User: Fold these one by one.
Assistant:
Number 1:
Amino acid sequence: MSTVTIVSGTYRNFTLSNQTMRLVAGFKSGAKGNYVTVIGDDTMGEFEGKQIRVKVEDESCIVAAGTVVTKEVAAVVPQETDEEAIERIRERFQILEDMTEGARDGNVKALIVSGPPGIGKSYGVERVLEQASFFDIIGQRKVRYEVVKGAMSALGLYAKLYQFSDPNCVLVFDDCDSILQEDLSLNILKAALDSSSKRTISWNTDSHMLDREGIPNRFDFKGSVIFISNIKFENVRSAKLRDHLDALESRCHYLDLTMDTTRDKMLRIKQIVKDGMLDKYEFSETQTQEVMDFVIDNVTRLREISLRTVLKVADLVKMKPMGWKRYAETTVMKRA
């Protein structure tokens, strides 16, 4: 099946820009406008792997198989080179680290980071905060940050915010998207992220847990929050959730890491591997290249395009240097 790059198009609440997908049927015109039929990729949420019709303005919005289809596109739409894309991605992650430093120093009260799973969103954040806490650990003082992962109840959220409510404390919620699905948790989070000079958070019902832990029913939150999410806020279709997310965005700095395509993810992987991600394995240059070649050659069949997948393949090379590909094909690839 051939591929097509959609220079500019839309599908429901998704906006596509320079996005390459598998082509089902080329440019057509219908009662509701122009469209191209493709297979949704891993940026399309529930529509991944499904046949969809993407609306486009005209044929100049389509680039097929890496070749410019029309002269108009060549003249109007500049094609981003790999080097330019890598620099764009690198800059976004540098901004993430700089904003984390701002949160550590109390200058950034709230930051939302959006990007797909497995591309190192939390790595830079944790590294900055670990460096900042080095002397606290040596001096046996309270560590001023914590990374919270996974599901969390509203009461647990309230207690955790109290624990890190002092100035220059940073609470990082990584892959805690369940908080966004529950009204009470969302209201507590919105109170913590409020832009006013005084952020008061309240728990207005009796709780044995709060009493047991000595946590008051009301406190002022003076710390900072970093919320790392796999959700691309602008693509959320639920009207109810959309209102909540808009409220969060209005209170926070919002950083989209712009990792919207398979190409972007692969370039990020190449960048991190080049920067030494596999050094701990002590591979030869040939082995490192074999790991990358396997990921690149099988990108359309991988269960997940991520740094984690690269590490899984590297683990297999370390375990079985002469027969690792058979194991990798079985464990990290989808069935044909």
Number 2:
Amino acid sequence: MRKCAWLGSLVALAACALAAPPVHADGNTALAESLFREGRELFEGGRAELACEKFDESLRLDPALGSLLNLAECNAHVGRTASAWARFRELAEKARRAGQADREAYAQGKVTELEAKLSYVTLRFSGAVADSVDVDGQRLGRASYSTALPLDPGQHRVAVAAGADRYEVAFTVSATPGRSVVEVPLDAAHRIAPKKPPPVESTATDGRAIAGWVTIGAGLIGVGLGSYFGARALSLGEQSDERCDGNVCDAQGLALYDEAHANADGSTASFVISGAALATGTALLIWVATEGPSAASVSVVGRF
């Protein structure tokens, strides 16, 4: 059960007499209860700003009327008249639905009290047609563009989209109750640059290095072929010798001799070509290592 322990006898009576009913302590409600208690301690310790944050998060996790009441009172205490007014209005309606007449009456009295302290702002756009409008991160419906908005005293920011352009204007709302007009110029001075993606590192590979490695690879393949043909030539030669008596060979011995000779020629050619490829590829890699990458292939970091 959430007990309310506000400073001031009237608030204490209104909150404590109508304490929220017990709730099941699942994950959200348990955390909401902890936040609520921290908020009370902070408020009573004179740290009202942080207390409001705790009550707000508690209410988000578990929309109990006790949290709503304490958040409304906290907002009123720190001078957020519009936020407090809106919360008390919400509390009055929810209390009415819950059949809590005393709490409804108390909340409605606070609504009436705060209405006399509200500051209203009407936004006036010039320079372009606004397609979307956000005030302090909250999107306004198009019907609200010309309506007087109840805002808390202090700094505010309006962000406007007009076509492909984005604009942002900061303004201050006075603590003095009343109505004012805020000009929102949609011009170059207030246009914000579109967000760019983070830097992407792009590294170009030197063509000489690619050619060098490809050539070395071809050379290694040639070495493999040369070794294969060489081994086959030796095997065929041994088979040919078995069928020859001195310089006299039978027909199969002559055929084996010719095949062995052809494989030997292939082995020689493969080793010659692979040797040249390995030398060329190595020379290219040494060139790159000695002189560095070419101007057209230097690694760069750019925005795309």
